[in-house]
Amino acid sequence: MPRHLDWFSRLMLVLAGILGASGVLAAAATSHLGDERVLGAVSLIALSHAAALLAFGLASPKGWALRASAIIICVGACLFSLSLAGQSLLGVVVLPMAAPIGGTAIIVGWSLVAIGGLIARR
Question: Where are the domains of the chain?
Answer without folding.
Answer: 7-119
